[in-house]
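Lab meeting notes turned into a lecture example. A postdoc, R.K., suggested we walk through two folding results consecutively so the class can see how the record format repeats. The first protein's sequence and structure tokens come next.
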Amino acid sequence: MSPESLARGTLPEGFPRNLGYLFVSTEWLAEVPGGRGKPEAAGGRAKQESYEPIVPEKVGNAGEDPGDPLEGRGEQTNVTEVGNMTAPGSRTNMSMRHFRIAEMAKEDRGRKFYSIAHLVTEDALYEAFESLRKDAGAGVDRVTYTEYQVDAWENIQALHRRMKAKQYRAQPLRRVYIPKEDGRQRPISIPSLEDKIVQKAVVDLLNAVYEQDFLACSYGFRPGRGAQDALDEVGRVICTRPISTVLEADIKGYFDAIVRRQLMEMIEKRVNDGSILRLIGKWIHVGVIDEGRLIVSETGVGQGQVISPLLANIYLHYVLDEWFEREVKPRMKGEAYEVRYADDFILCFQYREDAERVMEVLVKRFEKYGLQLHPEKTRLMEFGREVLAKSEEPGGPKPPTFDFLGFTHICKRSRRGKFTIHVRTMRKRLKRSLLRVAVWCEEHRHEPMEEQRKALNRKLQGHYQYYGRPTNYRSLWQFFRAMRRIWRKWLDRRSRKRSLTWRKFEELLARHPLLRPRITRSWMTLPAW
């Protein structure tokens, strides 16, 4: 049996159907789905066909034949369903199936996967449900995680049956708004719980394919990678390479600007399973409920959906990452590097002339795919050891700074006199965090003191966990002191007496102490500069 046949979900002639055998040899580390025997074509190669020759003609959320992830495969049996299943299966089987898909995707970067939707099993759906946030907002159906959890396995089975019977429908998204740093409102689209479950199962499956394609410069919303890794890479590149110019960039309204037709064409380069494509089409074309009105847009993927980050990464992988790596870098006079987290990215250059050329072409490149650089958050600046040396001369200009992932990056000298980068919490982020603390303290000031202390310590712990990078200790203390002042202010307003002096408040803190600032990202985890 060839790897191509397994990728398409077909088996050579004579292989028994509906067997859930698990191949544990070093060659086949996957559960093989059942399939009909196909006669071999000329040359001895098995025909690469689906179980049933059904090809979707259009992608949509409504119509006579909306499709589902198991349609077009006859009586294909779930590989984990051997006998009468009454409980969720093992996570090991799930990881082994994904491992085999990842192995095949890595072996051949040009391979297309035509039949992988059958891996969206009941076990996969249940595992996806368990991985969801329990306190996340509900969709338009108002079904919460706790309510669904009462009969979780039965609900998952019913969901899977609807998918097999072509009765699964993506529900409209619920639109909410959250404040941005500049005072505007950011629209967030919240899907229903069952849509989240199916999306998460599909994301886990597609990650096995696309994690083999994504480049090392991409850090956002990827397994095993995060913002701290991207910040480490920024420090490594600027401090160890001959960087003199930095392009700080941000894409304006990225999630709402993605051209869906071009996105689907990009996905089809790797995944050409009609059922998977139809599911994605449902999720990105579904409308949004905003103040009781159904709004349907022509572009975008709905920021807030479980699958949106993966789709956004796929889009920028082809639009920016691959283009910069294959087309731009070979044409540069000097070195060039990219560090991207979702739609925020910086480009580092050895020579300013290279940066200016890329800046000019980048605008045209993005326009081709419906994207636009944010005019206020995109700028080209000199940054690096040369700029720091000029600033140290008599009358030299102050070196510029740039913001990335919540931190302001500053050129500095280490204690040994070497060039390095110091980071500070962005003023806007610090102000936003303290505003949220003030709102919480006002709303919960009448709760027991110990309950308030625990909640505030959780907020401090989360703040230290992200912003606790070396050289940012001063900003942590600034946040800690401001939180103490805010807490005292609202405790003093629990009554009209206003009798909580600072001395009494210090005694209260002795009984209910707050977590003191600490660095959570040690120097040992950072690159050797």
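The second example is placed directly after the first for contrast:
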Amino acid sequence: METNERSETCGGRSGSMITVALLMLAVATILISPMLFRLGTGYKVTESVERMQTERYTGDAGIEFGLWNVAHNPLLRETLVGAIGTPVPPVMPGSVNGLAPTVEVVCVSAFAAGSQSPDQTPTADPEATEEATEEPGDPDETPTPTPEPPPTTLQYAVWANSTSADQTLRLTGARALIVGDVHSNNEIEIAGAASKVQGKMEAVNDITISGAWFVLDPGPMETCQVADYPVSWDIADFAADANGQPQGAYAVAASGQGAYYVHTEEWNISAEDEVIPAGLHYCTNKVHISGANVTMANGGVTIVSTDEIQISGAGLDVSPYILGLSLFSSKTSTGDVVKISGAGNVGGTIFAPNGGIEMAGHGTFIEGAFIGDRVRITGSDQTIQLAEGIPLETGTPGGQGADYSGGSEFAIPDVPLHLLSGIISGEPTFDWGLWADSTARKGLELSGSGHTVMAAVHSNGDLKLNGSGHTIIGTTESVNAPQLAGTSHQILGPAVITDARSCPILWNLSDYAPGGSVAALAASEGMYHSYEGDWHISGSDEVIEPGLHYCSGKVTLSGARLVGEYVTIVTPDEINISGAGGTFSPYIQGLTFFANKTTKKVAFSMSGAGNTGGTVYAPNGGISLTGAGDTINGSFIGKEIKIAGSNMTIKGVLVYLERGGGPIPTSTPTPHPSPTPEPTATPDPLVPDLAAGDAIYDIRSRIGGTTVNVRVKRYADETLEVRSWHVD
């Protein structure tokens, strides 16, 4: 009996052990499966990172190859300067890390030997100087060169003074433009895509560029030493005592002219078209200007506050009463003490020595200078243009605004604004963002609300601004006087009444049709594509093959993020583009889209944001641009042009035309494809001179999902200066 009991006990234990083992196996399965998944995911991440690193190294190697060619390949340089704006692909001699990058080099600007590029400092000719200064009887005397006189006016559009604050100077919005020099006593961060600085850029510490297609011209980009504010004021000079009586030097002088105002309560200017009394306004509370089209009485306005200053209304137009100073907040804060989100002209310095300055909003344009402890430029399509003539010496108070060079007028030079934001070279360019050619029709019309045109415009007929809140920044020409219906419109630039004239550029359809001269040249390079009937491309992220595309019917391009690099599309019919984010660049120099349909309606239409990269040409029909809050980059020539919708921004692009050194003829030019031109036995005599002088080149190296972009200047003495280097 005992034996049987022991047997039963043993069997029971065995069953329990099996159960426990099964439970442990189940638990192990539950635990091990995610561990194995995590290990597999980690391996994939590691593999992805390694691939990205390999692509980066390979892309950099392609850039180095391009730099070597710019430095040591005179034949390539002659080819590049002979076709400025035309990419040429030097062929890599082998692969790198088993990969072969695609490398392109393009000359964006060239200057004849012996001439000076815009950023080149003149140097004295020692022989000429010696000849002019040599005293009789002392032939060995070495003349002392005359030093360059220091500037007397402010050269910096943006100055961030802090040596330790995080994000001392930061540009985060897309397509920011700064016209003037930029300085930071700490760091500079540029994160927005397609931003540009028209001047030099200097920082004590790192300059970080993570946004794609940043442009610095003429530069340079360099490190510098910590420096004091280039201009400075003391809040005590503007203050009043406890009874509101003037106490500081500026306050007393302004009071003597009957132009001193003290605001102890929060000062709000919210009414449209309000006029601020001329003089010095001293505020011990917050200042908020939200009304549209706020202006000043004759004599200038300076606003000084011990608290915050906020401007959100569009169309502010003032010039400084205190020489060089428009807005001054002395508030000490780790945040922003001056905030601007409305377009306008402050005409002088915005000064925040103890706090930050923020430029926010969309499509804001400010003429002045931002001088603060920290500066942030957020939003998109922001423009800061340094006001001319801001003195480095603050001078004495007393109504200087009346004689200030900025005055109450918007100080934009008589060249189109989009040329200031691009690369200026010796090549002939099409200088207009919008050109309405018809004398018998409406010409140029903006309807809807809130559009901004950042380009020079011309109309052989009417110029109409309907709706509300439209702004044109740049030279404006029209045969008939501008008609401003609705409210809050602005023309910020010279408005000229002119005679009708022919468009300075003309393309002929027959040159691009099968058998035409340009078609034959493109075909000889394997870059001609012909389509019978209508041509329709739809879907997102489609890529159009480079070259000249001729279609006998309608062309319809729809879908988001279309890409057409080095593409020209020509049709005797109409072209319609829809979908946001399309990006194009021209194959035929200066020409991206040519719609030749003869119609009283629209021959070319574009809705949504995009970049044509060159000219849209509709010589016998209208052009329609529509959207809401979109930005379109391009130059447009049509019988008439209509911009509808709301809050659109139209930015002109720099369009290079035929090189020849003289004016563009009104007769038909001879356009040619942008790829490498055929060599000739007798080169253009301009080419050797240009190749021997200073020149600026862009180099692009692409491999997989990585694109490396570099801008370099090659000087006549064969030295190279890298202007920018960034990775997309």
